[in-house]
Design goal:
mainly alpha, Arc Repressor Mutant, subunit A, 2 domains, three-stranded antiparallel beta sheet, 3 strands, disordered N terminus
Length: 222
């Protein structure tokens, strides 16, 4: 039985993003799986070239490998560090490029892309969730997310209700207006995503990319 304190937000039907009722248009930001620290790690630009053994200028996005390599008990060899970091840099560069492109498009109306991401995440929940649970799936610190939820609640897009199990806390869900905004913006965003992805990838490559990203998400640390 799933842990009710930390509900798993389903991925939803991808095809439904293209039209009515379109309950789950794709979010602009990838949900953060519990325990993931890719965006919160420490990236040190120095020392990379000597550690990696290459002549390419170091990238600030590449994480510095731990001391004491190689160590078979850590699950990787020294020869695998450079390809792994090259793949990581390519992934982060693609993500940053697409996010900038989507943020600049005129599809968001009177909400920001980050606010849409919160609405999108709540739209996938079949019941109200706590702020800490919402925070596991968006790329925001909890204080920043709390302030954003306050603003969305004032605008009538998010509903806050007292937590039956903890009367000091609240649970969050979309209002009817919030759900309507998410659907309207989501349909436009879905078309933007399709245009960007199909411009550079074939349908087969899109399936391969999805499989790779899912595998990275669910693969435990070794």
């Amino acid at each position: 039985m799933a842990d009710q304190r930390h509900p798993v937000i389903p991925r939803g039907d991808r095809l439904s993003a293209w039209g009515a009722p379109a309950p789950h248009p794709p979010g602009p930001l990838a949900p953060v799986p519990p325990g993931a620290g890719a965006m919160k790690g420490s990236y040190l630009p120095g020392e990379q070239t000597s550690r990696m053994g290459g002549s390419r200028p170091p990238s600030p996005l590449a994480p510095v490998p731990p001391e004491g390599l190689p160590d078979k008990r850590q699950g990787y060899r020294a020869s695998s560090i450079a390809p792994a970091n090259d793949a990581w840099e390519a992934l982060m560069s693609a993500h940053a490029s697409l996010i900038r492109r989507f943020a600049a498009e005129d599809v968001w109306g009177d909400i920001s892309m980050k606010e849409y991401d919160v609405l999108y995440t709540l739209s996938k929940c079949d019941k109200p969730i706590r702020l800490t649970e919402l925070n596991q799936h968006v790329l925001l610190s909890q204080p920043a997310l709390s302030r954003m939820v306050d603003r969305l609640a004032v605008r009538g897009l998010v509903h806050r209700v007292a937590d039956d199990r903890d009367h000091r806390g609240v649970r969050l869900s979309l209002t009817e207006e919030g759900r309507a905004v998410q659907h309207r913006v989501g349909r436009r965003h879905a078309r933007s995503v399709a245009k960007a992805m199909l411009a550079g990838l074939t349908p087969t490559e899109l399936r391969q990319l999805e499989e790779i990203c899912v595998k990275l998400t669910v693969t435990p640390d070794r």
